[in-house]
Amino acid sequence: MIDPAPIEIPIDGTLDLHTFQPRDVKELVPDYLRECRARGILDVRIVHGKGRGVLRRTVHAILDRLPEVEAFHLADETGGGWGATLVKLFPAES
Q1: Is 0.85 surpassed by the pTM of this model?
Q2: 29: three-class secondary structure by DSSP
Q3: Is the residue at 91 inside a domain?
Q4: Distance of alpha carbon 82 from its chain centroid, rounded?
Q5: How would you class 75 by CB atoms within 10 Å of its CB: exposed for 0-12, middle for 13-18, buried for 19 or more?
Q6: What is the domain count for the chain?
Q7: What is the pLDDT of residues 27-38, one digit of tens each?
Q8: Is residue 25 one of the residues assigned to a domain?
Q9: At CA 85, angle to CA 80 and CA 86, rounded to 5?
């Protein structure tokens, strides 16, 4: 099987996981946050959906392990409610 071409996603502070396979999340989330941080985007919204909460738990477990994550919490109703997580990153060292 031929590997598909890499998908280019905009680095704008919002990562919508609906368009990705769950198996890609473990690499995608840290890579996206690293790129946001490098660009000075320190407030990030990760949309994981509401569903049964499996993807949300996966995302939160990843965030718990990343030293560049200052804090994270579920969004309020205006930001997607429990279908999205807001992440605060530490500034990159200069």
Answers
A1: yes
A2: helix
A3: no
A4: 14
A5: middle
A6: 1
A7: 999 999 999 999
A8: yes
A9: 100
Beta strands 84-89 and 14-16, pairing class: unpaired
Measuring CA to CA, which residue among 38, 10, 11 is closest to residue 94? Answer: 38
Residue with tokens 């999340």: 25
Asked if residue 85 is part of any domain, the answer here is no
Q: What is the residue type of 45?
A: R
* Residue 4 confidence (pLDDT): 67
**In this structure, is residue 1 part of a structural domain?**
no
CB 28 within 8 A of CB 70: no
Q: Which domain holds residue 52?
A: 14-80
Residue 66 has pLDDT above 90, yes or no: yes
For the packed helices 25-38 and 54-65, what is the interaxial angle rounded to 10 degrees?
A: 50
Please give the helix or strand (H or E) that residue 47 lies within, else none.
Answer: strand 43-47
* Residue 67 scores a pLDDT above 70: yes
